[in-house]
Amino acid sequence: MHQSSLVMLLLLLVFAVIHSGGAALRTRAEAKIGARAWRVLFAALSIPSAIVVIGYFLAHRYDGIRLWNLQGVPGLVPVIWVLTAISFLFLYPATYNLLEIPAVLKPQVRLYATGIIRISRHPQAVGQVLWCFSHALWIGSSFMVVTCIGLIGHHLFSVWHGDRRLQARFGDDFLKLKQSTSVLPFAAVLDGRQTLVWSEFLRPAQLGIAIAVGVFWWAHRFISLGSIAFLHSRLEGLLS
């Protein structure tokens, strides 16, 4: 395996420990320092680690062996953008209170049974798989495949870990939610346990996601500049 692929797996492991470990410690941490302070501390650790992962990925995305090259195939670009846009709807679902993310409002843990949760109980995992699939189609490198394995592996762990934490916090209420939903997209809808209510998807946060997709599309023109900047940074030297 190429060295940068091993480094990427290590970076993803560090991020997973910070992110999932922080989630596991949430109850005890909030009891000691409060919900807002915990959210600020969690973000102060998670965001920098995520930025390092993203920067390293952009700088090394074509490392290793080129397993396939579909760039130039007619119609591939719009397919990738449609899949990416859908992945963002799952990765950043509108069921969450956006003001709790920066701790403007007191962060709380809730059970959601509406909107995109009717499609999948763990929409972030679905979104990550879609994002990995679409970007792997375009990039086609062994480094990208290794990155996808790491990202999807972390999210599969998060499915188990998330269910475990919610059951410990909410008990029978979560078990009822679990019985009426599915992890596999649309499985609960197809077997009659769920019914989609389209009005639940009409939320202001969905407009924010659409704007974010547009911003990311526009920002792709600067990927090369970002990659070069990371490759010439001190952090790259430490990771090499």
Please, could you describe this protein's structure?
The structure is a single chain. The relative contact order is 0.14. This protein has helices at residues 3-24, 26-33, 35-60, 76-91, 123-139, 142-170, 172-180, 187-190, 204-219, 223-231, 234-239. Helix content is 68%, strand content 0%. The chain starts with a helix and ends with a helix. The chain is built from 11 helices and no strands. Helix 1 runs parallel beside helix 6 and helix 6 (142-170) crosses helix 7 (172-180). The model has no long low-confidence stretch (mean pLDDT 89). The longest helix has 29 residues, at 142-170. With 240 residues, the protein is mainly alpha-helical.
Summarize the structure.
The protein is mostly helical and 240 residues long.
Feature tags:
mainly alpha, single chain, 240 residues, globular, 11 helices
Q: What class do helices, strands and sheet pairing give? A: mainly alpha
Ranges where pLDDT stays below 50 over 5 or more residues in a row are none
The biggest beta sheet reads: none
Q: How would you spell out the order of helices and strands?
A: HHHHHHHHHHH
Through-space gap between termini = 15 Å
Continuous helix count: 11
Oligomer: single chain
Mean pLDDT: 89
